[in-house]
Amino acid sequence: MDTVPERRALADRLTASGVLRPDSPWRPAVEAVQRELFLNPGVFLPLDGGLWQPVTALGTPPREWARIAYRDESLATQLDGHLTADQATGPVAGVPTSSSTTPTTVVGMLEQLDVGEGDSVLEVGTGTGYSGALMCHRLGEDNVTTVEVDPRVAARADAALEESGYSTWTVTGDGLLGHPARAPYDRVIATCAVRRIPHTWVRQTEPGGIILATVGSWPYGTALAKVTVNDDGTAEGRIIGRSSFMHARDQALIPLAGDLSARAAYADTERPARIAPVLLDEWMPAFLAQLAVPGAQLVRATAADGTLSLYLFDSERESFAAFTQDTAGWTVRQGGPIAVWDAVEETLAAWQDAGGPDIARIRLRITQQAHVYRIGDHPSLRWEHRLT
């Protein structure tokens, strides 16, 4: 089926929404690259109850397949690190481990990359290969290097790129290490989330080059960082907005198992919480909490009687905060070497006192020794994450 009308309609929607700039040089790429080729052998569509409906390209009428392909939404292409849609015979449970990201996000990031003609780009996280194809169309296939950690995902992406006419540099490996054989790059773009921007990416980027990556460790409350590499091997820039991607495989948080109450059995302190922990359901407070206690996980648990319990666990430092709610408000119990909620609460209170500045006010500086985030010059809105 010819999908030219669908591709033009997608470009029109992206332009109307402001994702594509007027007369954007990315528009011809959006109109040329067939997203449906990068969804083979199929996708998983969400169902109620946490299940997924497999839909394959061969088993779906062409017009319906085109309608699915050009939805402006992320489409899961792999579950649990191995399962693809052609291997499932009906609804299945599982956790998405590879997807075709929504075109709004993909194209929006490419616009933010500020590429020029002839620029070389390192993409970390090939995924389906769709974003790599857009870059190949714009920059030329020899200027794009894309790295994917999953060999099967990489093989499918490479086949789709070849079918689309792009014989680019598709590498199977750990993207957190970059790809030094083709360095230096003018631009680095990550289509997976990372806890922090690896200094290997900084070293492999030309001075004046740009790195664009989603930072944070939680499944939500993550942010898109855009930094420019300096002549001295440092990099600095800012958070430019919210962003959400699957995490790099070896950085994904492993859900805590076992008896959560046992993990929080021995508290050193107990007091009323000055700030309700449910504030962390909001994006900006969640990101700030990750800056305050970068090793912590927020865990929700519901008892048989419907009672909600919240926890912050920092497993590496064997510390926790446990929250309970009654008619008087929230109470926090803390234990371990680090008072994790004290750190989060201090950050949230300082942020509120500063008027609740937007996430785009956060600046970032990267050196070989540390990542430093800050909002203005407020001492309680500065976070230094040492790397050594």
What does this protein look like?
It is a single chain. The chain is an alpha+beta fold and 388 residues long. Helices cover 24% and strands 30% of the residues. The protein has helices at 4-16, 27-32, 62-69, 103-112, 130-139, 151-163, 199-203, 260-263, 283-292, 340-353; strands at 42-46, 51-56, 75-79, 92-93, 96-100, 121-124, 144-148, 169-172, 185-194, 205-215, 223-229, 235-242, 269-272, 297-302, 308-314, 319-326, 329-335, 363-366, 370-374, 382-386. The strands form four sheets. It has a ten-stranded mixed β-sheet, sandwiched between helices. Helix 9 packs across helix 10 (340-353). The termini are far apart.
Task: State the share of residues found in helices, binned by percent.
Answer: 10-25%
**Structural class, judged by helices and strands?**
alpha+beta
How much strand? 25-35%
Question: Could you list the spans in which at least 5 consecutive residues all have pLDDT below 50?
Answer: none
What is the end-to-end distance?
Answer: 55 Å
Tell me, briefly, the overall form.
globular
- Major sheet: size, sense and barrel closure? 10 strands, mixed
Number of separate helices: 10
CA radius of gyration is 22 Å
Counting DSSP E segments of at least 2 residues, the number of strands comes to 20
* Mean pLDDT level: 93
- What is the helix/strand order? HHEEHEEEHEHEHEEHEEEHEHEEEEHEEE
* Adjacency order of strands in the biggest sheet: 8-7-6-9-10-11-12-18-19-20
